[in-house]
Amino acid sequence: MTETIWSVSDFVAVFNQTLEYAYPSITIVGELSNFRISRDRWVYFDLKDELSSVKFFGSVQQLSGPLEDGLMLQVRGTPRLHSLYGFSINIQYMSPVGAGSLKKAASLLEAQLTKEGLFEDSRKRSLPHPPATLGLIASIESAAYHDFIKIMNQRWVGVDVRVIDVQVQGEPAPAQLVNAIEYFNSHLSPVDALVITRGGGSVDDLAAFNVESVVRAVAASRIPTLVAIGHEVNVSLAELAADQRASTPSNAAELLFPDKHEVLSRLDSIKLQLTNLINVNLSITANQLLNFEQDLLTEWRQQRKIATTQLALRQQIIEALNPALALKRGYAIVRGANQQIIKSVRSLSKNDKVQIDWSDGSANAQVDSIRK
What is the value of pTM for the model shown? Predict the structure, then answer.
């Protein structure tokens, strides 16, 4: 039998074809070692156990957050034999596994984001109470979704709820959560508030809410955010980055929406207070109008009395100036030509004809002489 002799390049190509056919994707769990980042772009590390070590290569975009040697890591990738650098696995997805590693990875990410100021209280915004439109990111098959909707409907009415159904755990969860947040923020008609919710679970179940891309998406949201995860023991980083957190999905609905029965009761109380206030003000106004009417009547009577007195005085003056009264006292009016009243002897000449008027008649006369 003739042995096949390969060139190096042919062997690498055929070997990779064999790997692609036999192992198109493989998931490995091991302890992280020799972790390093090159040029802020490429990630290199090994996964090892007691007996073996395997090399991995990928992009920094595939990191779920800062890592350090010693963490237990689960990595899915494609085996490859590189023509120059040897065998490694090209990373498709990776995440810490196990409670200890997940907590350590979350602690590393929290320290990094705290240093950046992502969790500062000064960044927090108040949420509208209640919002008229609401974006809800949840698994619509989960109890968390149904609990939130149930309590919301019990407490308030008329809310425009826009839901995006996502996975909240597992490998697809982080990307789906980020895409949902970005969708609501890029929409032409943004909602008033954004709620991201899921029920409780183990540290592994809640890992998606400690992924760096998810935490940064929550912090970068232009829409005020509320993250509600049904657990109390450990607070996720997404909750720290949110404008507000709730202890449970039901608590999220309680924080966002007032109790409609309490609101109606307060409105009834306010209505009664306003009715009483209106009645009191109407009574006061009626009394004021009555007093004002009396004051006007008194003032009118006083002004009428003054006007009557002034009228009488004017009548007396008019009577005193009446020329007819002067004629009755023996005075006479002398008229010249054209019935003009002669006011001065200088207006007369000898032989002028005049008319003399008395109170009981008149006579014509001719001027014989003038004495000045």
Answer: 0.69
